[in-house]
Specification:
The complex is a heterodimer of chains A (173) and B (410). By secondary structure, chain A is an all-alpha fold. Chain A has one domain (2-172). Chain A has 7 helices and no strands. The longest helix of chain A has 29 residues, at 50-78. The model of chain A has no long low-confidence stretch (mean pLDDT 87). With 410 residues, chain B is α/β, with parallel strands linked by helices. The model of chain B is unreliable at 15-27 and 239-252 (pLDDT under 50). Classes of the chains: A mainly alpha (173), B alpha/beta (410). Chains A and B meet through helix 3, helix 5, helix 6 and helix 7 of A and helix 13 of B.
């Protein structure tokens, strides 16, 4: 099955999107209502039903993939990274986000036991799981596409971009 | 045939004649004045329909409350404080005096104290650009005042000596940001704060769909106790995993939906039980009635509106809360003390509820990740000195098999 997926980029990309959608829902079970509330404040009323959840996941997925592609493309061009194939990296990136969300969702199950943990959890858990997931992404990228000479440069910008975007999301969004 | 039609029409007339008068009679037959809380609500709101902070209306209401409590036999005192009033484009531009009204009976300094409170000001005529003017504050918070007055009246008639003091406090200027309760708490010494067994607050307890009691953003003995004593008519606030607005402020749970005077006590480390009515099932956050607009802070906040739209249910809610407080606290005083004596231990340390602390810890974590990344980068640089520079040609995806590639056959 893995071989079949490796030979069909389109199918693999859709599976990655589907897994990401599921992981987004799983990871954000506790904060979906915050999203509904924010949309209501902007005049867009989305009901707290299955349809509302589908809209939430679809919107998040579209925005996530659009932003991911944009950021990766921009970064590769600005940083003159030509050794990593863009299309393959996008799939790996989406799968990394999926893994991070799944891990975060599992950890967030602790909210059922102690809901107060959500205050710190919503801020910290995603950062921790993203840090782990993106470090693993770099290791995979290094194994597949990088050599000893260009690995430090790629890693440096990996880390800078990761910390920068984490700071923007945590402090301004 | 004609006879049959005539008989049918006659029968229909009897049926409607039987139903409609009964329906009209049923509506007219509700005697609201059979209920103590309704009587207090009607008396209070009729005498004091406009109670905006810092106005003559609020001062009159404070005096009215004092007189009624004195008639019951309580020793009363008032606290006067300044509260923001007036508005230019929604910004408070002056201050005026407001009052807290306090009633005590047979106060014993050696005993702990239970405070039963409600704010008496309303948002009937606040400021341009602010709340919608109009309404007589029947729900917010004539209902809470009525509940507390009915409990005070019942207590004044009983002779039994309680194992704790009971203090009834009517707070002013709640609508301007819990100014009255903040002032009240600020005047308590640390010993007095430690001596408070529980602060019970009643706010908007009339026309909401359901009744709730809240003690903290977790299970508490006081919420369990009142839910039990009410026979299930009062609910503990449901599992607060639904409404988590972690970026919405200090406390992201239901307390944000019902910020009232009890919060000033909780901030000071005093355990609370806050009664309110509403509905948490709408998905976004708290509403009074699912599918309807809230009546608090609107011109619909009147007794007549509640009668016409909610029938006897709003009175039943007030009676339920009044009975839960009276029977739970006063009639079963010993059991109450046993249940809530450890309530203070259930207060969540503010550290865990402050988003600012979470962001500080995030900064520390980011610094840690940054240090790790720097060290790893140095390690990669060292490896690069003697490392290989081969261009890797591996890819994740392979060329598909010829059979999988669609081609037009010639």
């Amino acid at each position: 099955m893995i071989n079949a997926l490796r030979k069909n980029y389109g199918r693999t990309l859709w599976i990655a999107r589907l897994l990401l959608a599921i992981s987004i829902l799983f990871s954000n079970l506790f904060s979906i209502n915050t999203f509904f509330g924010l949309m209501a404040m902007m005049g867009v009323v989305i009901s707290n039903t299955v349809a509302g959840y589908i809209i939430y996941v679809a919107l998040t997925l579209i925005i996530t993939e659009f932003l991911s592609r944009m950021i990766i493309k921009f970064s590769f061009n600005m940083l003159r990274i030509f050794t990593i194939p863009y299309s393959e990296f996008v799939v790996l990136f989406l799968l990394t986000l999926c893994a991070s969300n799944l891990l975060a969702g599992v950890i967030k199950l602790v909210y059922f036991i102690t809901p107060v943990a959500a205050v710190f959890g919503e801020t910290l858990i995603s950062f921790v799981t993203n840090a782990i997931a993106f470090f693993c992404l770099f290791l995979v990228t290094k194994k597949l596409y990088l050599n000893d000479k260009n690995a430090p440069y790629i890693f440096k910008w990996f880390a800078i971009l990761f910390l920068a975007f984490s700071a923007i999301v945590a402090f301004f969004l | 045939m004609k006879k049959l039609v005539l008989c049918f029409i006659l029968a229909l007339t009897f049926v409607f004649g039987a139903v409609c008068p009964q329906t009209a009679t049923a509506a007219e037959s509700i005697n609201y004045n059979d209920y103590a809380t309704y009587n207090w609500l009607e008396k209070f709101v009729t005498a004091n329909p406009t109670r905006t902070t810092g106005t003559q209306g609020e001062a009159t209401a404070a005096l009215w409350l004092e007189q009624e409590l004195q008639k019951m036999g309580y020793a009363t005192e008032t606290q006067t404080f300044e509260a923001p009033v007036g508005s230019v484009a929604g910004v408070m531009n002056s201050v005026a005096n407001s009052k807290n009204v306090i009633a005590k009976n047979n106060y014993d300094n050696g005993k702990q104290t239970v405070i039963i409170g409600a704010h008496y000001d309303n948002a009937s005529d606040l400021f341009n650009g602010g709340f919608v003017s109009g309404g007589e504050g029947a729900m917010d918070n004539g209902s809470g005042v009525a509940v507390v007055l009915s409990v005070a009246e019942k207590l004044s008639k009983q002779r039994a000596v309680l194992p704790f003091n009971v203090e009834f406090v009517f707070f002013g200027a709640e609508e301007m940001g819990m100014i009255g309760s903040n002032y009240y708490v600020s005047k308590l010494s640390q010993q007095q704060r430690d001596n408070i067994l529980l602060m019970i607050n009643a706010d908007v307890v009339a026309s909401g769909d359901n009744l709730y009691v809240w003690g903290e953003d977790k299970k508490t003995p006081q919420a369990n106790y009142f839910a039990q004593i009410s026979g299930g008519k009062i609910n503990k606030t449901p599992a607060n995993t639904k409404v988590i607005g972690v970026h919405s402020g200090y406390r992201p749970y239901y307390s944000v939906c019902q910020m009232s005077d009890h919060m000033e006590f909780l901030y000071a480390g005093i355990p609370v039980a806050a009664f309110f009515s509403g509905n948490f099932s709408s998905g976004f956050s708290y509403v009074e009635n699912k599918g309807k607009d809230d009546i608090s802070h609107t011109k619909n906040d009147t007794i007549n509106y509640m009668k016409n739209n909610f029938g006897i249910s709003f009175v039943n809610n007030m009676e339920t809360v009044s009975n839960a407080i009276y029977y739970g606290v006063i009639q079963n005083a010993d059991s109450f003390v046993v249940q809530v004596k450890d309530a203070r231990k259930y207060i969540i340390n503010d550290f865990w509820l402050d988003m600012g602390n979470a962001l500080l810890i995030l900064l520390v974590l980011m610094a840690g990740v940054g240090i790790f990344a720097y060290n790893y980068y140095k390690k990669l640089q060292k490896r690069a000195i003697l490392g290989n520079a081969d261009v890797k040609t591996s890819t994740v995806f392979e060329k598909p098999d010829d059979d999988d590639i669609f081609t037009f056959r010639s």
